[in-house]
Amino acid sequence: MTVTFWVNGRRQAWEVLPDEVLADSLRSHGFTSVKKGCGQGACGLCTVWVEDKPVPSCSVLTVRMAGKHITTLEGVQEEAAAYGSLLVAEGAEQCGFCAPGLIMLVLAMKKELKDPSEQQVREYLNGNLCRCSGYYGQIRAAMNYLQSERLG
Fold it and tell me: Which pLDDT tens digit goes with each residue over 35-84?
């Protein structure tokens, strides 16, 4: 079946299976920032934006995306680089597997929350699993990013 939608501002028409999840569709079309960890929407690695809201793409059928706007990390490279450099500065970028989903959540949080507390940041990022960093550096980087965006 053919599904038509937008990915990173470009109209797409893809042939997909009725039970195909968005994460698999995106990866098969070259959007390799979308990682697949748990396959159940619990780890956050596959986070993309659907209509500007963060969504675990492994838990959404591609056929349900008809007419929608999807944003992957490839579509927000400039913003992602700003946060990514803060992740590196905090020593929180180790294996990098969780980074795309984490970055998509932090950028979404910037749009959604105005001047969040550290507790709000922790709660917002709660669903993004990382096996390397222990989260402290990620939280510090997120707080620094949000503060620099607010000031700058």
Answer: 988 888 889 999 999 999 999 999 999 999 999 999 999 999 999 998 88
Domain interval for residue 6 = 2-72
> Are the CB atoms for 94 and 132 separated by under 8 Å?
yes
Query: Number of C-alpha atoms within 13 angstroms, CB side, residue 109?
Result: 28
| Residue with token string 């501002």 | 9
- Asked whether 72 and 101 are in contact (CB, 8 A), the reply is no
Q: Could you tell me if 148 and 116 are in contact, meaning their C-beta atoms sit under 8 angstroms apart?
A: no
Dist. CA 87–CA 2, nearest whole Å? 39
Strand intervals (E) in the chain: 2-7, 10-15, 47-50, 53-56, 69-71
Q: Is 13 exposed, middle or buried (0-12, 13-18, 19+ CB in 10 A)?
A: exposed
Same domain, yes or no, for 79 and 146? Answer: yes
pTM: 0.91
Question: Rounded distance, CA 101 to CA 45, Å?
Answer: 5
60 in the same domain as 9: yes
